[in-house]
Amino acid sequence: MKSAEIREAFLRFFEEQGHTRVASSSLIPGNDPTLLFTNAGMNQFKDCFLGQEKRAYTRAVSSQKCVRAGGKHNDLENVGYTARHHTFFEMLGNFSFGDYFKRDAITYAWTFLTGVLNLPKEKLWVTVYASDDEAYDIWTREIGVPAERMVRIGDNKGAPYASDNFWTMGDTGPCGPCTEIFYDHGADIWGGPPGSPEEDGDRYIEIWNNVFMQFNRTADGVLHPLPAPSVDTGMGLERVSAVLQHVNSNYEIDLFQSLLAAAANAIGCSNDNQASLKVVADHIRSCGFLIADGVLPSNEGRGYVLRRIIRRACRHGNKLGVKGSFFYQIVAALVAEMGEAFPELKNQQAHIERVLKAEEEQFAKTLEQGLKILEQDLAELKGTIVPGDVVFKLYDTYGFPMDLTGDIARERNLTLDEAGFEREMDAQRERARSASSFGMDYNSLVKVDVATQFTGYKATAGEGKVVALYKDGIAVEQLSEGEDGVVILDQTPFYAESGGQIGDSGYLTAGGDVRFDVSDTTKTGGAFLHHGVQVSGSLKVGTSVSTEVAAEVRQATSLNHSATHLLHSALRQVLGDHVQQKGSLVDSQRLRFDFSHFEAIKPDQIKALEDIVNAEVRKNTAVETEETDIETAKKKGAMALFGEKYGDSVRVLSMGGGFSVELCGGIHANRTGDIALFKIVSESGVAAGVRRIEAVTGAVALEYLNAAEEQLKEAANLVKGNRDNVLDKLSAVLERNRLLEKQLEQLQAKAASAAGDDLSGSAVDVKGVKVLAARLDGQDGKALLALVDQLKNKLGRAVILLGGVHEDKVVLVAGVTKDLTGQLKAGDLMKQAAAAVGGKGGGRPDMAQGGGVDAAGLEAALALAVPFAEQGI
Ligand code: SER
């Protein structure tokens, strides 16, 4: 069976068992700062497990794209060296949200494997969490797996619940005991059953994990029972394909064959099972998908992980002898292999290629140099540990991520002093005071059952009740005057930062003199977090408050948000359908929109964009919203961020009767006319293939134009003109300036000529040749050249060297009359003279020019003329 057929068979089987087929979510987890990348099928359902989100279904099935590089589940270092680890893989999963539990989950898994895929029962082994007798009994008594192929696994990772059979999404979040199904690839492959000392071999491979979700783990390590026991399963598509295609390594399955061939082709090496080629074939998948989902290489967070993966691929290509950029060339094979199932790859092929090529070219500049430095350091190394400062130097100066240096070290049986490297990094962070804010664990703040109702689409004020308070990340009963903290209400009109729009500010008040000023609003799970300071009185859990959003700020922000949508549509009209949103930021002062496009936007295109948006503004159509399901929305042509996580019900926002239709949960103008005026203030590039437009609307746009007008008035005043004639006046000033410059030049030439007359008298005679060396300050090179010409005519057989200081630099001109150039060359004299003033020069045998910066050497330079002539004649 081909991988694509297995994927389809899985989805269909569970659909037949009443599961709803749900599309893969983006690799960038939506609104979940605890997670670096989507690393399991259950991520998009996290809030369903926690009871914070209800969907129309209680059973789901998906094939989810996952990246396990960086973060808790990190396989990067193993990739290429084992048969089954990947940075990117597809996870087939079935899920129950408080619907079926252990018995059905186990039965479905067994039926699918043995009844649909027809795997031989005797090849399957099963593990359960040591204390999970219920699962053990279902397997042995009901399914009939013999005890000798059942293994109980306890807390084998050194702490309570730290076990191969207790699955956790991250340090916090939904978790529970699991039962795993292994496939025995046969005695001719080394390895032992799970739980045995040889379990890391490639003989017994885990293919399916069934997690019985029962708890939410908070940052303090406490396990809180979930509202309803649930099921989360995951089966690696690549692993099960290997089983069904009768190969032991994932790299031998159909999906990888074309990627390996394309990699070998791009590199120009043979395709014979080298680890480095597997690394490249694996990495093109994570890199391609991450870029398609909006990640760009950078020096922090997700962007840095992407950069690490690209650089690791480049280094392995380099090991295989590649010359020049190669990695981006494999994108086409990836699109051919997976573009059908994941259209975002196809749509963004050109963008992915550009980003990869730019990153490769940038890294190529330092790769070779860095490898040389590393070679030198390794040659001098005593012992087997590469010191932290060496690893840091490579990182800091040559852009070698630590795992890349680690890879090279491992090939030579060396290890890294990781702690030493971290110390150097800490020191640098301290120096730069730029610790990244990634990983702020808001999840630990919020209890499972907090879900705030949002009332802010219609109102900017209302009432609410305090359901939780936090200070310094810890739940408290009360916030007292002067304290910073976070307030969670049962309902709020405050918009929480999302979809590029900043969170609302404003204040909360309660009886007496109680006031909490809100500076920002964010959300995690279902809870809205009002961040701010208790300015007077105190707030307690249970207090009823009045809520008041800063309405003017909100209003100005909403105009910018609506204008962003109009700009998005206008961009596609003016530049083409390849324009994809890459990011946006909307606040009360301006809007910023990043999108894929390959070159700078031309002035006439900027004008066209402004004209289109302002025409929509003048039409003053109503901004309409509609709640519907994702499929209906897509049929209406709604632009959605590709792969973004959307719940069952989505909000479709339309303007201009179909001019702009987007999925959006943000706050918008009532009518497009509210925007009043749209003005683009800048256009720039932010990364390879990504442009940025910044624009203003409403009162801010008017202010912007007023300021421009003010400047124009000032400019007119300077040339004693007015708004109507300022251009004529300016042209006249420039023309006069040009004339004056010309006159000045003529006067200078005249002055030089007069000086020439004077100078000719000071030439000395060297064996019948006139040698003249003189200093003339304030003349540029052109004037000195003219003078040398003139002096040649006047002096007959002559060697001339003139020099002077002009605009802080030394200018030198040397001339030799034609009859002497056989013996003496002006260029040679110039070389010596220029060196004396710390510069360079050269030219023809009869005329040479040069200059330098060291005026103190000018006399010495001029003194060179006579000895030069004496030696040559
Ligand atoms: N979440 C579990 C895993 O990733 C099962 O899907 O293994």
TrEMBL record:
State the coiled-coil residue ranges: 705-757
Where does the Alanyl-transfer RNA synthetases family profile domain start and stop, copy by copy?
A: 1-707
Q: Which InterPro entries match?
A: aa-tRNA-synth_II/BPL/LPL (IPR045864), Ala-tRNA-lgiase_IIc (IPR002318), Ala-tRNA-ligase_IIc_anticod-bd (IPR018162), Ala-tRNA-synth_IIc_core (IPR018165), Ala-tRNA-synth_IIc_N (IPR018164), Ala-tRNA_ligase (IPR050058), Ala_tRNA_ligase_euk/bac (IPR023033), DHHA1_dom (IPR003156)
Q: How is the cofactor bound?
A: Binds 1 zinc ion per subunit.
Quote the catalytic activity from the record. Answer: tRNA(Ala) + L-alanine + ATP = L-alanyl-tRNA(Ala) + AMP + diphosphate
Q: Which cofactor is essential here?
A: Zn(2+)
- A single GO molecular function term of this UniProt record: alanine-tRNA ligase activity
- PROSITE patterns the record matches: AA_TRNA_LIGASE_II_ALA
The record ties this protein, via Pfam families, to:
DHHA1, tRNA-synt_2c, tRNA_SAD
Transmembrane regions? none
| Task of the protein | Catalyzes the attachment of alanine to tRNA(Ala) in a two-step reaction: alanine is first activated by ATP to form Ala-AMP and then transferred to the acceptor end of tRNA(Ala). Also edits incorrectly charged Ser-tRNA(Ala) and Gly-tRNA(Ala) via its editing domain.
Report the domain remarks: Consists of three domains; the N-terminal catalytic domain, the editing domain and the C-terminal C-Ala domain. The editing domain removes incorrectly charged amino acids, while the C-Ala domain, along with tRNA(Ala), serves as a bridge to cooperatively bring together the editing and aminoacylation centers thus stimulating deacylation of misacylated tRNAs.
Q: Which PANTHER family match?
A: ALANINE--TRNA LIGASE, CYTOPLASMIC, ALANYL-TRNA SYNTHETASE
The name of this protein is Alanine--tRNA ligase
